[in-house]
Fold this sequence. Notes:
This protein is an alpha+beta fold. The chain folds into two domains: 12-103, Winged helix-like DNA-binding domain superfamily/Winged helix DNA-binding domain (Arc Repressor Mutant, subunit A, Orthogonal Bundle); 107-160, Ferric-uptake regulator, C-terminal dimerisarion domain (Dna Ligase, domain 1, 2-Layer Sandwich), CATH 3.30.1490.190. The chain has helices at 16-32, 39-51, 57-63, 73-85, 129-138, 155-159; strands at residues 89-92, 97-100, 110-115, 121-125, 147-152. The strands form two sheets. Strands 4-3-5 form a three-stranded mixed sheet, with no helix packed on it. Strands 1-2 form a two-stranded antiparallel ribbon.
Amino acid sequence: MAVSCGHPHAHAGLSAGALAEALEAAERACRADGERMTGPRRRVLELLLRAGEPVKAYDLIGRYGPDGQAAKPPTVYRALEFLERRGLAHRIASLSAYVACDHASRAHAAAFLICDCCGEARELEAPAGAGLSDAAAALGYVVDRVTVEAHGRCAACREG
């Protein structure tokens, strides 16, 4: 998804041991909650973890099959819905794209710093997440999830 802006960018996703460890941790978390990490769910999570940057659903559909064969759209969209609900992935609305969660081991309000030059999306915990939940509770609301998106330029692009 990276935009070409004239200087090199490194969007390193997980590979080998780190990828296997992340997938196993996700499977353990699902089993602990009585849910299944099906083959399609695992494959979509694997693609997100490998990418290391936001990926559009249609790109996931195209990359789905190991032999280059595309998946049926409902397969990928159902997997994304599950991964999002489980906190294993986030949808970045301003990009219409998805990323694997960097903090999947615990519930949190996500914030993304999105570089408009290279497309990098760095996740951090949203500073206002707890305050928003508390304010919502005072009004009788229960907040299921919070995602904050901030656009700008990363350090590498500012220097490039």
